[in-house]
Amino acid sequence: MSTIKSSNEHLTLNADGSSKDIKFQANGVEKASISSAGAFTSTTIDATKLTGDLPAISGASLTNLPSKGKNIFINGDMGVAQRGTITSLTTSQYSTCDRWNVNINDAGTWTTTQDTDVPAGQGFLHSLKLDCTTADASVAAASFLRLQYRPESQDLKQARWGTSDAQPLVMSFWIKFDNLTGDFCTDVLSLDNSNNRTVSQKFTYGTAGAWQKCVFTIPADTGGNTLGADTGGDTYFQIFLQAGSDVTSGTLNTTWATRVNANRAAGQTIQAASNTSNNVYLTGCQLELGSTATDFEYRTYGEQLALCQRYYYKTTSSNSGGSYQNFAVCSWIDNAVYRGVIEFPVTMRTRPTFSSTGNFQSLGGPTFSAMNAGDGTTFDRHGIQVNVATNQSAGQSILIRANNDATTALIYDAEL
């Protein structure tokens, strides 16, 4: 029996019986309710009428909230792929998807691509695919295959590692192995300020060909050296896809400890290079402050691209101007030398190295000979130098463009 009573100027509404709710109505229309479990529901409360302090709410209970800037990882949804498909990969290099490095030694041959195989219902459009094209089932002691992310040290300063106020981080990601089940390890290697410490976590992957979400809670490191606030990258976040006895023969350390390589991937049974059917997919990678993994932070493609171009910038005919894309106007300097300026879309992490691919021509001028870095290259622009086949006269200018070649590109690399 429901009751209403007044006592000491307090009004008490009581709905007797299990699973009974208290409902508030106006003109026969329900405006709010309080369930027997204490949950309050309303669609009509005016936010301007709410006063007083809100109660403490666990971060784990806050989901589907808009976020900005919490994900330290860049390109965690694998949406930017400036390098394109990479084949015959047997040594360490950055993969197809920007900011994600394939760290490899004696672990087969691989092709990396940007793929559309993604976990259902999560909103992702792309994944990084590693395709084993030549197997190596022997698993030598020094064998390893790792997916690796290196942030700038200044981007980790919020964790305050190396101080008494150090904070935990949590790393989450979605992974899929074709044709494999078993255990694999992740680890964090900290070398900042000559520090040399690791912490690891093992995961069991149970269903071959299925996407699985993994969460690695990284404890606060109060015992290491203070993280440097600079553009260097001395902290490595890694996922082991193959591991030989050099890194598996010890005991997995799940708390921070001085690096012992044998402990870093102890218990690893997944060996991705054992068969050419062992494709690996990765997406939804997030690193954030705290000990609870929250919903993935999506960025627009334009935001993501600009963040990636701080580390790697590639301008190509195929995405900019067709087979005859214009690159720069260069002015005569001396004899057979011309110079011009290429402006970068964003300030790069450091002064980049320059390379080029494809087929260039000098339109309206002498025969093109070579192109290289000239004087004055900074974090913001490239002083480009063009050499032509014969000496020229003062006052001339030439237009450098692709010579009917959609693969022609200028490449600037400021990666960690």
Structural description of this entry:
The chain has helices at residues 245-248, 301-309, 317-320, and strands at 3-7, 10-14, 22-26, 29-34, 40-42, 86-89, 93-94, 101-105, 109-115, 127-134, 144-149, 169-177, 182-190, 197-205, 212-218, 235-243, 257-258, 280-289, 312-316, 326-334, 337-343, 353-357, 360-363, 368-373, 381-388, 397-402, 409-413. By secondary structure, it is mainly beta. The protein is globular. The protein folds into three domains: 3-52, no CATH class; 86-309, Jelly Rolls; 312-413, no CATH class. Helices cover 4% and strands 40% of the residues. The termini are far apart. The strands form six sheets. The protein has a seven-stranded antiparallel β-sheet with strand order 7-8-11-16-13-14-17. A six-stranded antiparallel β-sheet has the order 6-9-10-18-12-15, with no helix packed on it. A six-stranded antiparallel β-sheet has the order 23-26-20-21-25-24, with no helix packed on it. It contains three helices and 27 strands.
Report the total helices. 3
Give the mean pLDDT: 89
Q: Provide the number of structural domains.
A: 3
Gross morphology:
globular
Structural class: mainly beta
- Identify the CATH class of the largest domain: Mainly Beta
| Terminal CA distance | 70 Å
Fill in the keyword field for this structure.
single chain, 416 residues, mainly beta, Jelly Rolls, 3 domains, seven-stranded antiparallel sheet, 3 helices, 27 strands, 4% helix, globular
